[in-house]
Amino acid sequence: MRIPFTHGRLPIYEIEDEIVRKLTAIRRLVLQAPTGSGKSTQVPQILLKHGLLANGQVVILQPRRLAARLLASRVAKELGVEIGHEVGYQIRFENVTSGATRIKFETEGVLLRQLIDDPAFTGIQAIIFDEFHERHLYGDVTLARALDIQEQKRLDLILIVMSATLDSRALEKYLAPCAVLRSEGRMFPVDVDYLPRRLGSTAPPVWDLAADAFSQGVRRSDGGRPDVLIFMPGSYEIHRTIEAVRQRPESRGYVLLPLHGELPPRDQDQAVAQYDHPKVVVATNVAETSITIEGIRLVIDSGLARIPRYDPHRGINTLFIERISQSSAEQRAGRAGRTA
Question: What predicted TM-score, i.e. pTM, was given to this entire model?
Answer without folding.
Answer: 0.84
